[in-house]
Amino acid sequence: MVDIDAVRDWLGRLPGGSLVGRYVDDWDAFEKLDRPVVTLFGSYDTGKSSLLRRLLVDSGGDVPGWLTISARHETFEVNDVEVGGCIIRDTPGFAVGAPDVRAQNNSRRAMGAVGLTHVGIAVLTPQLATAERDVLQKLFTQGWPVGSMWFVISRFDEAGVDPEYDLAEYRELSDRKVRELRELFELDDRTPVFVVSQDPFQTAGPDTDLSRETWDDFRGWDGMRDLADAFEAVSPSALPGWRHTAGQRYWTAVLDETVTELRRQLSDYTARAEVAASGVARRDVWESELDTLDRAAQASLDGLVEEVMRRSWEPSSGADELQAEIQRTLDEWFTKHEVRLQRLQQSIRKTKERERARPSWAGFASLVATLGSGEDASTTPAGPGGAAEHVETVGTMLIGMLKAANNARGPIADGKASSAKAAGDLGRHIGIVEAALPLAVYLAKVVDEQGADRARLNQDKAAADKRQQIVTECTERTRDTWQPFVDDVREAIVAETRDQVGLDASLRQLVEQLQEAVAEGEGLFRTGTVPLLDIEA
User: Fold this and answer.
1) How far apart are CA 174 and CA 156, in angstroms?
2) CB–CB of 74/68 below 8 Å?
3) β-pair type (86-90, 79-83)
4) What would the pLDDT profile of 491-524 be if each residue is shown by its tens digit?
5) What span, in angstroms and rounded, lies between the C-alpha atoms of 146 and 205?
6) In 21-37, which positions are buried (b, 16+ CB within 10 angstroms) versus exposed (e)?
7) Contact call for residues 147 and 190 (beta carbons, < 8 A)
8) Of 124, 208, 318, 403, which is most buried with the most CB atoms under 10 A?
C-alpha cells in the first residue's frame, strides 16, 4: 500500500519537471468510467487477441481493424472494445528478457495497463507460465479484491488431448492443469480459473469477418460459455471497492516504474558526471604542468639573452660569428623547451585516447551530441496505457533541464568539432629553425647598429641603461615568439576538456537531485504490500 497523495506530491517535484499531470489525466479518465474495465494480459502468443475476437463475435459485436490474429507479436498498443456491459482492454504481450526496445516497451505498456482496470485476466497457454512467472507473480501481489483477478488457460485444444475423441480425458487434463496453476501461484478457490478453446483446431484462423455460428460445433466443451457468463456477472455495484484497489495498483505501478527509471537515469548520469569531473581534474593538472614549463622557459630566457648580448659587445666578435652564435644559442633554448612541450602534448593525446576507449565515454559523448543539437527536448507520450507510457519522458525532462542550464552559460560545443580541433592542435609541429632564425637576424641587426658605440655602451651609466633596454626588448621579442607555442598547447587542453568542464557543474547538481528523488521515492514503498485476494470488494 502506498500513500497516493505522497506519491503525487513526489511526482510533482521530480528533477526536470513534474509528471503528476500526465498520470492524473489517465487516472481521472479511468475513475469516471461507469462500466467495468476488464484487461487481458500475458505473454504474446497466448491467445489474447483470438480470445477477444471470440468474445466479440459471440456477443454480436464487430471485430475492430486493429485486432489481428497471428502467431507473431502483433499487438503493440493498449486498445479497448465493448463487450456487453464491460470495456475489455487488449494489451501487448510482454516478452520477458527481450533485448529489443519495442518488445520492452510492449511489456511496460501491458504492465502499466493493469493499474487502470477493475478486473484483470491473466491469459496463459496450456504449458502455464514459464519465463513470465515472476512477472505475473509481481502483478498478483499488488492487491486485488476477491473476484477481480481471473485466469484463463487458453488454446486448450492444443494441450494434447482431442476432445472430439476423448472428452473425459480432455476434462481430466483440464482439471489437472487448473490444480497445477493454483499450486504454481498459490491461488485459493476464490480465484476464478477458466479453461477455454477459443478457436478449436484454428477453425477461424486469422479471419475477422465471422459469425457466431463459426464455433457452434464446439460449444459443448470449448469452455467459452462459462467465461461469457462470468463477464455478464460483473456488476457495476462492485466498482467503488475495485476502483479503490485499482488506485493502489495504479499509483504503486507509477511509483515503481518511475523509481526504476530514475535509478537507471541516476546510474547513467553518475557515469557521465564522473567523466566530466575527470575532465576538470585533467584540465587543472595539464594547465598546471604547462604553467610550470612556461615559467621555467621564461626564467632561463632572462639570463640567456643578456649573456648573448654581453658576448656580442666583445671587440673580437665579427658580425657573421655573432649571428651564428645567436642562432646556436636560441636553437638550443627552443629545442630544450620544445621537447618539454611535446612530452606534455603526447601525454594529453594518450590520456584522451585511453579515456575515449572506455565505455563511459560513449554515454558522455552521446549526451554532448544531444545537448549540442537544436532539437526540442519535449515530447508527448503516444496513447493511453498508464505508467509505462510516461517513464520514457523522465529522460527527456532531464535532457531539457540540462539544455536550459547549459544554454544559460552559452551553447555547448559540438563534440566532434571540439575533438577534431583538439586533435589538430596536438599534432602541430613546433618549427625550431623557423622560430629562432628571425630572432637571430633581429639580434644581429641590433648589435651591428650599435657596433660603433660598443666601447661607450660598456662604460658610462647612460650607455648601460641603453644596453639593458636592448636586452629587455630582445627578451620580449623572444617571449613573443615562444608564446604562440604555449598558447597552442593551452588551446588544445581547453578544447580536449571543453565539454567535460562545461557540463561538470550541471551534472553534479543533477546527480544530487536524482539521488534525493530516488531516496524519497524508495521511502514511499516502506508501508508494505498486500497479498493477492486479501481485500474484500
Assistant:
1) 8
2) yes
3) antiparallel
4) 999 999 999 999 999 999 999 999 999 999 999 9
5) 35
6) ebbeebbeebeeeeebb
7) yes
8) 124
